[in-house]
Amino acid sequence: MHIRVILPIIGDSLIDHVRSEVAEWAAPDTKVDAVVLERGTASIESEYDEALAAPGILDQIARAAEDDVDAVFISCFGDPGVHAAREIIDAPVVGGFEPAVLTALSLGEHVGIITVLPNVLPMLRSLARRYAIQDRIGTMRVIDMPVLGLEDRDLLLQRLEEQAVDAITSGEADVIVLGCTGMLGVAAELQERLAAAGMKVPVVDPTGAAVTWLESCVRLGVTPSRTTYLPPPAKDRSA
Amino acid sequence: MHIRVILPIIGDSLIDHVRSEVAEWAAPDTKVDAVVLERGTASIESEYDEALAAPGILDQIARAAEDDVDAVFISCFGDPGVHAAREIIDAPVVGGFEPAVLTALSLGEHVGIITVLPNVLPMLRSLARRYAIQDRIGTMRVIDMPVLGLEDRDLLLQRLEEQAVDAITSGEADVIVLGCTGMLGVAAELQERLAAAGMKVPVVDPTGAAVTWLESCVRLGVTPSRTTYLPPPAKDRSA
Amino acid sequence: MHIRVILPIIGDSLIDHVRSEVAEWAAPDTKVDAVVLERGTASIESEYDEALAAPGILDQIARAAEDDVDAVFISCFGDPGVHAAREIIDAPVVGGFEPAVLTALSLGEHVGIITVLPNVLPMLRSLARRYAIQDRIGTMRVIDMPVLGLEDRDLLLQRLEEQAVDAITSGEADVIVLGCTGMLGVAAELQERLAAAGMKVPVVDPTGAAVTWLESCVRLGVTPSRTTYLPPPAKDRSA
Amino acid sequence: MHIRVILPIIGDSLIDHVRSEVAEWAAPDTKVDAVVLERGTASIESEYDEALAAPGILDQIARAAEDDVDAVFISCFGDPGVHAAREIIDAPVVGGFEPAVLTALSLGEHVGIITVLPNVLPMLRSLARRYAIQDRIGTMRVIDMPVLGLEDRDLLLQRLEEQAVDAITSGEADVIVLGCTGMLGVAAELQERLAAAGMKVPVVDPTGAAVTWLESCVRLGVTPSRTTYLPPPAKDRSA
Amino acid sequence: MHIRVILPIIGDSLIDHVRSEVAEWAAPDTKVDAVVLERGTASIESEYDEALAAPGILDQIARAAEDDVDAVFISCFGDPGVHAAREIIDAPVVGGFEPAVLTALSLGEHVGIITVLPNVLPMLRSLARRYAIQDRIGTMRVIDMPVLGLEDRDLLLQRLEEQAVDAITSGEADVIVLGCTGMLGVAAELQERLAAAGMKVPVVDPTGAAVTWLESCVRLGVTPSRTTYLPPPAKDRSA
Amino acid sequence: MHIRVILPIIGDSLIDHVRSEVAEWAAPDTKVDAVVLERGTASIESEYDEALAAPGILDQIARAAEDDVDAVFISCFGDPGVHAAREIIDAPVVGGFEPAVLTALSLGEHVGIITVLPNVLPMLRSLARRYAIQDRIGTMRVIDMPVLGLEDRDLLLQRLEEQAVDAITSGEADVIVLGCTGMLGVAAELQERLAAAGMKVPVVDPTGAAVTWLESCVRLGVTPSRTTYLPPPAKDRSA
């Protein structure tokens, strides 16, 4: 199986980290490769960034279709370009939000999403309503760190733990979902810290959830429905 | 008052028609000008088209902000780029969906939207859920004509009437909203035809609803909330 | 265009203030006149008051229909008699709630309504559910001042600011709607005070929203749907 | 126990029938008396009628409070004046909709309401949304007979059976609620006819449901909550 | 009328108390008897307990059907076995949740449920969603006492009062429902204490609500719908 | 990885088929074993059957916990015993409904579930509401074949195709979920038949979805949340 990771940003400083992280979650026989955008933004933290990233993502989706990959992971929790992508490729495509949150639904009643900045909260709440699963989202919170500052692992874990503990003890969250695909490699440790503090609450890593989700879809032999994702009519496009 | 119309397509064959139509709905002292995109697609009939159009729309939003316009109408029923736009301009911005449907809510219980092609239905239903007003949408239907074929006014009116009559008599719609801003200048006649057939049901023109909505917002002195539409953080963007 | 304002109370001490305020929001060529009730209550602050006011409101609606006005504003945030009125007049009719809240939906994610007394909160929440827009209402709060005590402008603004600041900083409101049509002439100043305190959040005046809403409807050529608002069958009525 | 029935219409031609029907549903030791309105309409078939009836209903509620009755049944399926009434009397008050529909919820998944005229459907759907139980209402239908024509028992039963059979066989209703308190004395026979046709589906009589509901509330010692139904502040009222 | 109470636990130490309490709520001419389970658990405080209790409950339902009782009360607030029971008996069956909460809906806007342990909260919230009435539940809270510790009446009342006062003053509850059928004989006193503290808020006893609910259903002549509760097909069963 | 399949019925005639089917979906290095119940019913087609099966399922869950399996699949689309099971084992547990339907949500807008008999529809709709995902379920339909008659593969496929085609062409379903885990080995062929008929719509096999779901959860290192699924307090249990 061949999974293509589209890191929907410009600049390739993060790409090796992301690819190796994805590969770690993937099954042994899954081939993983990763690409960045030729046009887009340095990170996605607003509707504005999402909109600017979309054409570059779709360029890469078209290439993935040509390369006949089995599945595509657009590595961003805002699911940028995901629905447009499904219109033009016959393979499962997910971002970070959908697989992580849907997985979480099978683990506890209310999902608590912890993301980076307040800027993205309205966007994530819009996604929850769009997907009609908002009644199961107990809280959405931020650690107030920009995507490009997440490499400070200690601070990241400390802030995540603070928010997770508060969300759990106030009864707002039964499952924690890391709300940014840039929060790499911390889910297990956060889960352990919570357990050590007496809170046996699962923590879902969005990258891991996306990779296993895509592998499941490929093994199930399913691709996007063509009654929801109709192929775009031919026309002049110069975007 | 100065309203800028962004026709979110490439090619300017429609721009005069749109500008004059908008001007007709506008108040006498409202200045209306219209622009098209420098990058985008020939029409918007899919999530794919919307995604490709968004950066070109945001180019024009930035220009509108520089030009200090009072309000912006992105003339497409799918509300493309609307939420991203609100992040970067201190003036009311609407597409076609939101003002038409919200206006319709004050006229009858269930709104019936009649749009062009099946391709856009999932997108419009996603908007309705995103805006959390889906319980008042009684039906969404299509006339099965592409945006660029709407100039056949007789056929357009005939198809609209067929769908409207069916929606009303089956109890699915109490107000009709024309679901494409390319359906110019037919709302009043459709309303008359329905009345002549014994159905006194209002028909909302999305262009008219958008223009009057923006004028209202300007007169009310309101602009997008900065707790929902936070200004995007500065970063490298090459989209 | 001729808009009739029905101030749904007995006693005409407020009528000049209301009429001039409405006229200020109205377009230059809109004629505004205002009437009070011949039977009703001194103010509306309960379901009980609303029920007692309704027949007097409908008397005035009948007169407005005879006078062939173009639109009617029932100047009360509880929308008293609005739905009954739409059954008997072929012109747009709104109260204060519907146009203000629907306008607010286009400005931010969650609407915060600040009204007078706790007595009216259940009534307003019932309206929100009736209109099926409750998921976008983030909070409803009171300043604990009766309608007939709102003339103390300083206190009114102080209390509104307290509630608005608290609603915004706690993340419950992105747009403020003044929840009583008796809160005249304070929206702009409240908006400025919030901006000065670092909260760029729009404040919607219900009187202004109603007037511009009605003007929009008249310009759009739409009137209440006769499949939702069926004409009442003839019968003996001695109310 | 003393239950007061308020028949919310003018003219007393129906009062004996209603009182005896209520008495039949009541427990042996329940005292039942019935009154009509001094001001109101001949029947209630629109928001307009409801609005005109409300002050006359509240007159009778005030009298019921003076008479220290234990509970009040406002005998109309549109629940006219019910919420205003609860603000001014310390005794349970119901109309026809609430007890019948809530009772039905314990008998099957989806409730089918069969009422008189299309005019009242939007009003009943508004009630269902206001009470936030709309997701359990499978269908609302009409027999197209006015309230004052229901005395043709054969025709009434035939029309009810037609609608009930259609609602059940199409999977829209698991429980039938008679949607007009003027449909007296036919629930049992309708239920038998349906059973004879192979549909073991309960039929809820709104008068019976209201009477037993009120008796239950009195026996439970509960009255309207004063945090929802606050006493109206004193003021000038001349309605 | 003959009501059978199924106390869905093993061991009969509580049965006399429950039977006499039920008898006190019942009408004078209602015969009440009570049974416990031959297989089950000592109390129900988890999904696990509910699952283990269900077959024993259904044994007793089968016996109740043979005994031709008129109605069955499964005396537990989690409604264990209720829906399965309705499939196999032609008589009204309720647990504690449904009648108490539906009764409460007619008394105030938001229901506050106060139950025993955190363990049962997800189960009760699942019931509320299953019944599609969750939007009217303002809060669910616990007193942190196990079912088998409720005999300490003073402590029980003190804890209930604490939670009720907090729920009411924070605006989360307008009606209190006791969320465990083991909280016997305290509703009236709790209601008095709240009134003495200035909160005229009704308190619904789930046992009383269930008994009067069942009596009402019997008097109304209604039994479970056979389109929702279809009789189970014959097959090998050795549970 | 070790997945235990609990076939929640008595009698082992189906167990080999189920085990081999599960093994086929599983990853190469996943160990699969399967057990049946020692007490229960021959198939599950009602709430009654579910209730009777639950204790036998929980017996097997306890054994699975002792055997330290990594995950448990309760092979029935009604998710019997799933929530109780999660309270007593520290490993992911799913039935057929949850993983199949959640997987489907990522493939198209509206899910169409095709199950066996009308008896189970209310139960499945209750699950959808309980999980708060009902707004994405477009239709639930039956093929009117009992679970124990599904071995007629031709008839099964024909009936499934009929229902699927009708659901898709009427716009009610964009993704098909097979609504019975007894419908083994037909998803791929149904999907092909639909594609051959011009409907490129994914078909989700509930067994495959459950197995890959569990494998994903194990790889993600997540287990049931202990704030939703609290361990049952110790007590006397003789069920």
Automatic annotation (TrEMBL), chains A, B, C, D, E, F:
InterPro entries: Asp/Glu/hydantoin_racemase (IPR015942), Hydantoin_racemase-like (IPR052186), Iso_Racemase_Enz_sf (IPR053714). It comes from Nocardioides albus. One of its GO terms (molecular function) is allantoin racemase activity. It is an enzyme of class 5 (isomerase). Pfam families: Asp_Glu_race. The keyword Isomerase applies. Keywords: Isomerase. It comes from the Bacteria. Its EC number is 5.1.99.3. This is Allantoin racemase. Belongs to the HyuE racemase family. PANTHER family: PROTEIN DCG1 (PTHR28047:SF5).
